[in-house]
Amino acid sequence: MEKARNNSLDFLKIIATILIVFHHYQQALNVKFTQINFFGGRFYFGYLVELFFLISGFLMFNYIEKIKQGLNFESFFINRVKRFLPLVAIAAILYECLIYFYFRIFGEKFLEQGLNFFGTIISILGIQAGWSFENPMINNPMWYISVLILCYILFYISTKISILKKINCVYLYVILVFLGLSIQKNNTNLAFLNYYTARGYYSFFFGVLFSIYFNNYKIRKFVKILSIFLVMFITYSIVAHYFIVEKNINYTLTFIYYPALIIIFNIDIIKKIYSSKLITKLAETSFNVYVWHVGAILIFIIVNKACNLNINFSSYKVMIVFTILLYIFGTISYYLIEKPLEKLIFKKLNSNKKLNEK
């Protein structure tokens, strides 16, 4: 039986997406704020991608049982990628078009990026980073999707091996967590074993492990209180005394802070605060926001430069308004692009399945 949608994960995805948008807004526009800086400050907001990986791994809990019941790889894999890969492909093509128009209009390259045909192809296929090729940096935040696909493949293989060999799947997930840590520690730079995959492996498979603990055991009051304390302490340290947590902050976030946040946001009293259809809808559109946000920033730059608008990019208000508009566009994209494409692919796959059965 499917578990009810976890609104705590939805809420965290929304917050993380907004902060990532802020992060890349500052990075692409090369602006500095007088107070909190989401790029170029003490804290690296890019580590929120580990939260995305952890949540993606957390959501694999039900699939462990489905694979045990005979779910084949084709059904598992297609079900995972049919939603996001078409959108990623369209965004990659649009990004390259924007790079072309930027050069044609202004006679200079945007962030030294030129057209890259092969890079566009591997970006469309979702294998731009972590696989066997150098990352072409086309709509670069999509490196997360590229590595996530690898994580899905490894998740299915490791789960299937545990079933066939009658091994507890937890052991294999632990090995994959340590594989990611080892890759990062040794600065390994090989196909499937590199900077990108390291971040994905240790955070995704820790998310799987955490979901097993979260769903199979009752979270005791002591753990909830400890989680609140840890989140308060780490947050305060990041804001006021960063040197306390600066070393290995990515591991502190992945193995302590993010799981503690999930536990806190699943406390009944807190769940009532954000349990609403609005949160669910915003979470559904957040992926579209993530996919389009760099392209939207580039459009923002082109329009401002071409029309001599002289927009003050170094303004929190401008950044917030941009993000609100981006969420509006993300909602439109969700209903007019993502959902219709998903239905079309589902219909096509079903018709092919019926033909094969004849």
TrEMBL record:
The keyword Cell membrane does not apply. The chain crosses the membrane at residues 43-64, 84-103, 115-131, 143-159, 166-183, 195-214, 226-245, 251-270, 282-303, 315-337. InterPro entries: Acyl_transf_3_dom (IPR002656), Acyltransferase_3 (IPR050879). One of its GO terms (cellular component) is membrane. Pfam families: Acyl_transf_3. One of its GO terms (molecular function) is acyltransferase activity, transferring groups other than amino-acyl groups. The keyword Transferase applies. One of its GO terms (biological process) is polysaccharide biosynthetic process. Residues 6-331 form the Acyltransferase domain. This is Acyltransferase.
